[in-house]
Amino acid sequence: MSVYFYGCISLDGYLADKNHQLKWLDETGTVEETGYDDFYSRMDIIIMGRKTFDFIAGIKNFESFYETTDNYVMTHRNDLNAETFTPVSGDITEFIKEISEDKNVWIVGGNTLLAPLLDDDLMDTLIIQIAPVLLGDGIPLFTQQEITKRFTLKETKQYGQFAELVLDRM
């Protein structure tokens, strides 16, 4: 099993602005300018947090974005109102450890899921696009424990205004 984070941050490390909005990202470029389609075609499972799910659930036809994967939402509530998403409660690290070895898992969203996976050395690859925008405040990507985590820079790419770093766990 390989566990991936794939997402975009501002130049100062934020996933969303202080109001949990992504307007800054939409104003920078589009998903068509990235390697998203190729990345998604390799994924088997998506795991996202409830805040991320609530955000995407507001987009028209959002379920069509994730048609070829098994989709899970880490939540304590059971009211997703989406046929293609399964609610899961409990510890993200324990849930990940139960996934079959032959699966690729995409962690969608932010630090609530990412931090414990980093703390337990369960993240294999970080694919981070950086937008040339300084937000000054917002929702940070990284909030793991203050323990040094090293990654190997595997690849860099440019997609329009986005710089992409592909980093593998050492």
Describe this structure as you would to a colleague:
It is a single chain. The chain is α/β, with parallel strands linked by helices. It has a single domain (2-169), classed as 3-Layer(aba) Sandwich (Dihydrofolate Reductase, subunit A), CATH 3.40.430. It is built from five helices and ten strands, in the order E-E-H-H-E-H-E-E-H-E-H-E-E-E-E. The strands form two sheets. The protein has an eight-stranded mixed sheet with strand order 5-4-3-6-1-7-10-9. Strands 2-8 form a two-stranded antiparallel sheet. The longest helix has 9 residues, at 111-119.
Query: What profile does the largest beta sheet have?
Result: 8 strands, mixed
Please tell me the CATH architecture by its name: 3-Layer(aba) Sandwich
Strand order of the largest sheet: 5-4-3-6-1-7-10-9
Look at the structure and name the CATH superfamily. Dihydrofolate Reductase, subunit A
The CATH topology name reads Dihydrofolate Reductase, subunit A
Percent range for β-strand residues: 25-35%
Q: What's the gyration radius in Å?
A: 15 Å
Q: Rough shape?
A: globular
Q: Mean pLDDT, rounded to whole units?
A: 93
Ranges with pLDDT <50 over ≥5 residues? none
